């Protein structure tokens, strides 16, 4: 079928709306009319992969319009949120940990699906896919394994970001670290991922939640979302590091720290901010993490540094949990979302990159 999609041909090009072809759903796939899609920094990373042309977008949500012959768990008209693609057959997938699929990079960042083919084309030539969905488009043909049913009374524009950025931050807390109510946590970086971690830490009942950032407006929002303390890294006393500032207000260091930046200095400070036997989770895309020195900061203090993909989340289990928390008012994702019409995708991108908005979501209707 023909549809409108936002196509990128060069890494620095703006999004350009073009007509392309979308393949019909196969046996285990569904055709979804996309109603909303979040923008994520990973879309910017996708521009650097050297695939041209490509349709980006990987935080989609919409309404099912057609089912493949073997689809049993969904019906036409179901509201669904998208998440990442996975093979379903490797050791990790069979063990219920699709976030660590052995083919994760190939089928999410390789421009094709698990079958080695793209579902997108233009004038008979393939157009690269992204994350098995390419949600900056009017429609998506997507595996039933990569979608999660959402109650119809929930605004899909609020839920679309759950498929990547939100579950990454929230999952790092609730799935990876699983803190106890009397424990403490610091989050380095106040973007959508960091705010999701802060909201999750409040849900977990952490006694102290410290947000470390460089923008007063963002830090004020962090407190509104659950941070008990905030540190402006740009306003530290002369000679004081971020880690020292955290240690000073946490009685010698936090139990856990999360870095969402990928910045080598931030990572080093996150490590140093924890107490003995502390745990540190790194969330930035692997291609964007700067080098940092483990050294005695880790070994001699019995600390653990953890790499975490998609918040350690199985979307079919974790996204419904987050949706329920949102419906209960305990995970107020709406406080960080700014909506744009689909036609203003490039403006949403510019505003996101400039830090004018926390989480941009484009809506198709």
Automatic annotation (TrEMBL):
Keywords: Metal-binding, NAD, Oxidoreductase, Zinc. CDD domains: benzyl_alcohol_DH (cd08278). Its EC number is 1.1.1.90. GO terms for molecular function: aryl-alcohol dehydrogenase (NAD+) activity; S-(hydroxymethyl)glutathione dehydrogenase [NAD(P)+] activity; zinc ion binding. Belongs to the zinc-containing alcohol dehydrogenase family. InterPro entries: ADH-like_C, ADH-like_N, ADH_Zn_CS, ER, GroES-like_sf, NAD(P)-bd_dom_sf. GO terms for biological process: formaldehyde catabolic process. This is Aryl-alcohol dehydrogenase. The lineage of its organism: Bacteria, Bacillati, Bacillota, Bacilli, Lactobacillales. Its cofactor is Zn(2+). Pfam families: ADH_N, ADH_zinc_N. Residues 10-362 form the Enoyl reductase (ER) domain. It comes from Limosilactobacillus mucosae (Lactobacillus mucosae). GO terms for cellular component: cytosol. PANTHER family: ALCOHOL DEHYDROGENASE (PTHR43880), ALCOHOL DEHYDROGENASE CLASS-3 (PTHR43880:SF12).
